Amino acid sequence: MPHRLPPLAALRAFEAAARLGRMTAAADELSVSPGAISRQVRQLEDHLGLPLFDGSKARPTLTAAARTLQPVLTTAFQQIADTVRALGDAHQGPLDVACFSTFTVKWLIPRLFDFHAQHPGIEVRLRTTDTGTDAAREGCDLLITAEEATGTPRDAATALPLFAERLGPVLSPALAARAGVLRTPADLARQPLLHTRARRSAWATWAAAAGADWPEAAAAAGPVYEHYYFTLEAAVRGLGIAMAPWHLVVDDVQAGRLLAPFGFAASGYDYLALRRTGAAHPRLDVFSAWLVAQACAMPSPLSAQP
């Protein structure tokens, strides 16, 4: 006779608790109480005749048996979810698209009206991620992200190249009027500089790419904002000069809300869209084609002018 498997609910509860590291986090993910998770884990331990967690309830640790079982269950549940979703979502239901938060606000949402106008029957649901590298693991149909440019082509069926990132300093017309003529990077360094916490090296990256002589002390000067969107809004309001990717400020530059006196230089990163693999997905094909067309239609940035 085949070996009797443990109850599916017990396996699901253990996988979530082991992957997330806390019973409470597993309870939140599965929409049950922490007590229910604990009971399901104990049921699985009784079935296996093995302990799966050591340590205290506040700081549980995985046993050797748990470390063997968890990745197998995680892969299996992901494969089940992908297959069920591919079968049910190929021709109906919303598209889930994940990308950086500032990319969502400054680039994708301003263009999304065009997609809705062309394809009113396809709903696009947006979510944000800062670390995603795989659409399936993010639980989405399409993941828009940036990767260091390597020159090695990706699988054309799952990775869609969008554009190379280019960086450049931007400031408001009001601040430019107060600052006077900006001829060299040294002139910039004497002005208030804005930084983003997740990308403190952006000024140095631009200087190296543009061949500019950049004072090291300037890298530490000026306020630091938690998100790129905050940094760009501060620049629009005249609080300082921001180092910004072209795709995030193209609309502001074209509208005259920001100036780019030194143009933009390649940062060494490429933006691409990673598709969820699986069965045929006509709606995802439509959105992917539209996204690539929007990237191609984006105006070319000014060249660096150090």
From TrEMBL:
Pfam families: HTH_1, LysR_substrate
Gene Ontology MF annotations: DNA-binding transcription factor activity; sequence-specific DNA binding
Keywords in alphabetical order: DNA-binding, Transcription, Transcription regulation
Segments forming domain HTH lysR-type: 6-63
Presence of the UniProt keyword DNA-binding in the record: yes
Domain of life: Bacteria
Biological process annotations from GO: DNA-templated transcription
Alphabetical list of InterPro entries matching this protein: LysR-type_TF_proteobact-type (IPR058163), LysR_HTH_N (IPR000847), LysR_subst-bd (IPR005119), WH-like_DNA-bd_sf (IPR036388), WH_DNA-bd_sf (IPR036390)
Keyword Signal appears in the UniProt entry: no
Similarity comment: family membership: Belongs to the LysR transcriptional regulatory family.
Protein name: DNA-binding transcriptional LysR family regulator
